[in-house]
Amino acid sequence: MIKYLLFRYLRFDKSQPFIALCSILAFVGVSIGLMVLIIAMGIMNGFDKEFERKLFAMNYPITVISAYRGGISDEFVSKLQNEFSELKMSPYISTQAVLKSGDKMEGALVFGVDFESEKAVNSVLAKALEQSGIPQGFEMIVGKGLSDEFSLILGEKITGIFMEASPAGLGINPLLKRFAVRGEFSSGLIAYDRGYAFSTADALRRILNTQGWDGVHIYSAQPRRDIEAIKAVLPPGYRALGWWEQNGNFFSALELEKRALFIVLMLIILVASLNIISSLLMTVMNRRSEIALLLALGASKREIKNSFFAQGLVIGGGGIICGLILGLFGVWLLGSFDIISLPADVYGSSKLPMELGLWDLVFTLLGAVIIVAASSYYPAKKAANVDVLSTLRNE
Q1: What is the pLDDT of residues 204-226, one digit of tens each?
Q2: Residue 105: count of CB within 10 angstroms of its CB
Q3: Domain ranges within the chain, ordered by starting residue
Q4: 195 touches 143 (CB < 8 A)
Q5: Most buried residue, 175, 177, 180, 243, by CB count within 10 Å?
Q6: What span, in angstroms and rounded, lies between the C-alpha atoms of 166 and 208?
Q7: Span 169-212, pLDDT tens digits
Q8: Model confidence pLDDT, tens digit, residues 4-46
């Protein structure tokens, strides 16, 4: 009975073409809505993951810092490394400086590191060191943004003006030191490419007249778990920071934007599902006499209800399947070919990042199914409640 009524009412009726048109519009609307939603979620998730990977490298998964400059000794670093032998660590010195080349000046955060240890925890710097080699003495690796701003040539000298001052005569002069540019790195994020520079730890120690380290960069594949273990062994005066703690507001904003986009685009499917309601209601109104006759001949209200409910599910479900196929194809197409080009200095990548999460896809499909099912339920219930006596008497 259900299958017979389903195919009967889904066929094109020449006397009522508008009903078929509403069904087609509902199918197309659900398909396009779901396709747009899947592609949009793939783009948003792709940007999230792309920024996360870049910030993961340049901000480091875990950073241990001391309350005092130079407060971390080599013995402390060795003890920490022995305690967590599975983690990669790189101690560092950092200071604010103004880098000057010609008439141009830019502020930068200068790190003094052991490059052999640093390249194990910083994939961006490791890639740059493969091309330039390890800096020695007063040599520096600068970001590509800074290099482009100064129009630097490898081997060219730049001047570092450090915030620490030195007495001279009757006044105080800032510390100045010239560095040779050994190479450049590119993180894809202009804030780091114009604001970070790396030199040797010995060079910064001589300039700043300090000993020890300011902190330890730590690479961990599971930093949220390992940071708790590290915090448990740190003595007073030391702190462990995760990269997500330093960029919490940024990712909270991305997550909020992603949820808002999901809700807005889900409304497209909701609007398209209104055509399911209208087409089913028109079918019910047009077939009232048939429905009443079937009920009079012994068909149960449940069978009538399930027949129209199934009709709505076929229209909406077909749209969901079609939209899913088109959406996944769109994600693959945009992710595999450079169809859309982006300014790398703004978005961190010239290629449109596409990465559709499994749970994003599951929640998208679940939301579409719920909307389609809810849209099919009311007309089906209306069909089952047709007044048999009144309909047969008057129609």
Answers
A1: 988 888 888 999 999 988 888 89
A2: 14
A3: 2-55+250-394, 62-219
A4: yes
A5: 243
A6: 10
A7: 555 667 888 999 999 998 877 788 888 999 999 999 888 888 88
A8: 555 555 565 666 666 677 778 888 888 888 898 888 888 888 8
The mean pLDDT value for 62-79 works out to: 87
Task: Give me 200's structure tokens.
Answer: 């040797």
Pairing relationship of beta strands 139-143 and 62-66 according to DSSP bridges: unpaired
Residues 220 and 57: beta-carbon distance below 8 Å: no
Tokens matching residue 233: 């062994």
- Helices and strands, number each (H, E), in the chain: 16, 9
Percent of the chain topping pLDDT 70: 85
Among 266, 280, 265, residue whose Cα is nearest residue 314: 280
Tokens of 244: 């997500």
**Cα–Cα distance, 355 to 151 (Å, whole number):** 35
CA dist., res. 384 & res. 289, Å (int): 12
Has this prediction a pTM greater than 0.70? no
> How many CA atoms within 13 Å lie on the side-chain side of 295?
21
Q: Which two tokens stand for residue 34?
A: 């779901």
What is d(CA 182, CA 112) in angstroms, rounded to the nearest whole number?
A: 14
Q: Are 136 and 198 in contact (CB under 8 A)?
A: no
